[in-house]
What we know:
The structure is a single chain. The chain folds into 2 domains: about 5-245, 3-Layer(aba) Sandwich (Rossmann fold), CATH 3.40.50.300; about 260-475, no CATH class. It is α/β, with parallel strands linked by helices. It has 22 helices and 11 strands. The strands form 4 sheets. A 5-stranded parallel β-sheet has the order 4-7-8-1-9.
Amino acid sequence: MTQAxxxxxxxxxxxxxxxxxxxxxxNLLRKLEAGGTLFPxxxxxxxxxxxxxxxxxxxRHNMILLGLRGQAKSRLLRSLTTLLxxxxxxxxxxxxxxxxxxxxxxxxxxxxxxxxDQTPVAWLSPDERYVEKLATPDVTIADIIGDVDPIRAARxxxxxxxxxxxxxxxxxxxxxxxxxxxxxxxLAGRIQVCLFNILQEGDVQIKGYPVRLPIDVAMVFTANxxxxxxxxxxxxxxxxxxxxxxxxxxxxxxxxxxxxxxxxALTDRGRELRVPRYIREVAExxxxxxxxxxxxxxxxxxxxxxxxTALENAISNAERRALLKKEPVVVPRVSDIYAALPSLTGKxxxxxxxxxxxxxxxxxxxxxxxxxxxxxxYLGSADLRPVVAFFEGGGNLKIRExxxxxxxxxxxxxxxxxxxxxSHLGIGNGEPAPVTASAAEFVxxxxxxxxxxxxxxxxxxxxxxxxxxxxxxxxxxxxxxRMKKQVN
Length: 488
């Protein structure tokens, strides 16, 4: 059937077409019966969002995904194309992908009336049936619905009221497919009104002319619920016509977040790369810590892009060091995550107190908290009293940021009991120096994160009482106290 090139061949093959929502429902039922993953690449939603999306499709609903930034809303909408048929016949050359058996535009009706079974047929892939638009305040009705094209009318000698003069907008061009509108609250109210008939009646009118286009489309939207008051709102009659409202969310556990980051991050660097599990969890834990931190605006959210870019930047720093030091294997360290601050500070919005501290200091605080939590998981039962005693007895250890792994291991061996704890991380004596250096540094950073040892800019790791607390900007905190005093 996919080889048919004319309407007559389609009829001979016994082809028939379904409305797009019925097509998606049928294919979803087949997937459910077969088992397996409904939407490949969508992680962390198996028990929450995906069942609700499936219910909406089975109910043939238009739907909206509500959630903060970086919650895979757009990716989920694009995954809906997996529920479309591999190929769909259309009248060749039609701007709105008209059904050869039920044409709705005047041009296709006239063509079929003229050529009959010899009408040429083309085929659409699922991706060609997906139309996406980012809603902005300057979007017009012409962008979404269409407009009269005077040039087309003049060239063809048509009356302006003729359908043949119409330039179709994005929505008619999504006929027999999926139309996705991102950030719906940003769409002007008068434009939202024009969607009423499409959602309820399935038709559009262009430029006030009595042109009825009963388009067949599955409409899906996204929105950030916090934007309703900040940038606009979804008007009530439109919300009433959207069949299902589905809430998305951030990963519920660090394990889910690590899986998402591992899937999305650029880790293929063309050379041997070993990313320890604890490094992945530290990068992920930064996002979890940020979502809890009172200095960060909860309404804007902390995107899942934060741990992805943080891990990528940390690996890049380790990759650069390995190249400079001629090391055969790339192994990122906790210090590489600190070096990834440029990938963190733009990913969250600060509250008043956070603005006074500064984004860099807030980010360092988040990394420290994340390291402390990961340390508890991996080394909570380890006996690190000899390590702590070394620093409490006056010992200190300053490691250069550009030190090679061999140099770093040699310095770390000065700390008694440190390498004995590496067995808790699965690190044995035969591991390459970059692996050992990364693990040993994680132990020290974890003790610092739990405030069992300190760290000084000029002396490195030191006893807790000698800790200068470099993460706190005393000058800014003093400004905060003065400003609060003035307010009171």
